[in-house]
Design a protein that fits this description.
This protein has 133 residues and is an alpha+beta fold. It is built from three helices and eight strands. The strands form two sheets. Strands 4, 5, 6, 7 and 8 form a five-stranded antiparallel beta sheet that branches. The chain is globular and about 40 Å long. The protein starts with 5 loop residues before the first helix and ends with a strand.
């Protein structure tokens, strides 16, 4: 039985690891998840990630980032927007701003998976995958 929403699974695994104050979390790899991890790394929401090749699907090990010793995470919330049952598409003039530009919206566009700022620069709209702040 396949997974119906791999992006929601990706976000939930990170959310659960943050809640449990883990240093790392392993997620089954895919090209979409690798791109999501790269965006989170570029915007300093995670400290690093590596792709582990196990001869099958592979794993992405994400190194979570915390602000202090008490375990206050850099990521406050991960929110899935477009779901398999209800897709959410936006045009270039309707691109969302998350928490007054403190967070990022990640979109799937014709130019690949981009943040809303990159999509605005490229002048493309697309499917809003998630918000991170």
């Amino acid at each position: 039985m396949g997974m119906t929403d791999p992006i929601a699974d990706f976000l939930t695994r990170i959310r659960n690891a943050i809640q449990a104050k883990h240093k790392t979390v392993d997620i089954p790899a895919s090209n979409t998840k690798k791109r999501l991890a790269q965006i989170l790394f570029d915007h300093k929401f995670i400290s690093n990630y590596i792709v582990i090749d196990d001869g099958k699907q592979g794993q992405i090990r994400i190194f979570l980032r915390y602000l202090d010793e008490e375990g206050t995470s850099v990521i406050h919330q991960l929110q899935r927007i477009s779901k398999p049952g209800l897709r959410k598409y936006v045009g270039v003039d309707e691109l969302p701003r998350v928490k007054n530009n403190l967070g990022i919206a990640i979109l799937s566009t014709s130019r690949g998976i981009l943040t809303e700022r990159e999509a605005r620069r490229e002048k493309v709209g697309g499917e809003v995958l998630c918000y991170v702040w």
